[in-house]
Amino acid sequence: MSNEVLIQHEDKIITKMGKAFLSERVVYRGKDLHKDLKNTSWLELFTYGITGKRFNQVEINMLNFIWVSTSYPDKSIWPNHITALAASSRSTPSLGLSIGMSVCEASIYGGRPFKIGIDFFLRAGESIKNGVELALFIDHELIKNKTINGYGRPLASSDERIPHVVNFAKEQGLADGQHLKIALELAALTKEKKGLSMNVAAIYTALGADLGFSPEQFHLFMTPCFFAGMPPCYIEAKENPEIVRASCRERVEIS
After folding, report:
1. pLDDT attached to residue 246
2. Is the CB of residue 138 less than 8 Å from the CB of residue 183?
3. Residues near 64 by Cβ (< 8 Å), separated by ≥ 6?
4. Overall pTM surpassing 0.90 (yes/no)
5. Alpha carbon 24 to its chain's center
6. Per residue in 68-96, pLDDT tens?
7. What angle, rounded to 10 degrees, do the helices at 111-129 and 215-222 form?
8. Which end of the chain is more exposed for a tag (fewer CB within 10 A), N or C?
9. Residue 141 CB: number of other CB atoms within 10 A?
């Protein structure tokens, strides 16, 4: 970074995203937060903050269900497990939930695979537009990277979320996008070539590509996707005696 750029930013904030003019107004991506955006839902505001785009209601429904479909209140799932342990030690909600969120940035699940996955579908879609067959593109991808994100699932051979998300996309009229079609076609190819079943990350990232997200934007959007499963685990662990640990090896009893 040049000295000229550093000097331009010295003692001031240069922004096109927003500013709180206290006692007056708040600007959010060029719009008045309390006037222009007063009727937006939190999810609409979140996606607008990330992309600068106003998604329509059907698209918001789809994005909302992506989050809903992966919100598991199961203390044996690693982020929830850590949140529950924090509650068992009587940590505060903000600390317990934030530490759970922090471990969602793993190499085989969570944020990074979503970013890699949508990048893959965007490149696949562009290659097919340029006349490359999907099977040939996959062969090159497997030679280069050995695996394809979204195909294969740790600890399970299938993914119970896939039919629900695909059916919801059909209900919303969003099942005909190029990248979702690639994901479903690719499921048969990876099963044949690698013996791997598709997991829901392939569906999520393909839908994200069809909705116009960039890899960086989709990474940001998916960061809270496990979050709604954490508060129930925190609450239940805090209701139990402190000595009761939320071990993933415990027998599960559902009352």
Report:
1. 47
2. no
3. 43
4. no
5. 35
6. 999 999 999 889 999 999 999 999 999 99
7. 150
8. C
9. 17
Tokens 């030679």, residue located: 143
> Which of 128, 104, 114 shows the shortest CA–CA distance to 207?
114
Tokens coding 6: 């550093």
Is residue 125 within 8 Å of residue 178, measured between CB atoms? yes
pLDDT in tens, 200-247: 999 999 999 999 999 999 999 999 999 999 999 999 999 988 855 545
- HSE (CB half, 13 Å, CA atoms) of 137? 20
Reading the block at residue 127, the tokens are 């290659």
Q: Which residues contact 27 (CB under 8 A, 6 or more apart)?
A: 18, 19, 20, 21, 33
* CA-closest candidate to residue 149, choices 121, 127, 177: 121
Among all chains, which residue has been given the structure tokens 């709604």?
Answer: 228
Cα–Cα separations (whole angstroms), residue 94 to 83, 97, 110, 234: 10, 5, 20, 11
- Count CB atoms within 10 A of the CB of residue 179: 23
pLDDT at residue 164 above 90?
A: yes
Structure tokens at 177: 């996008």
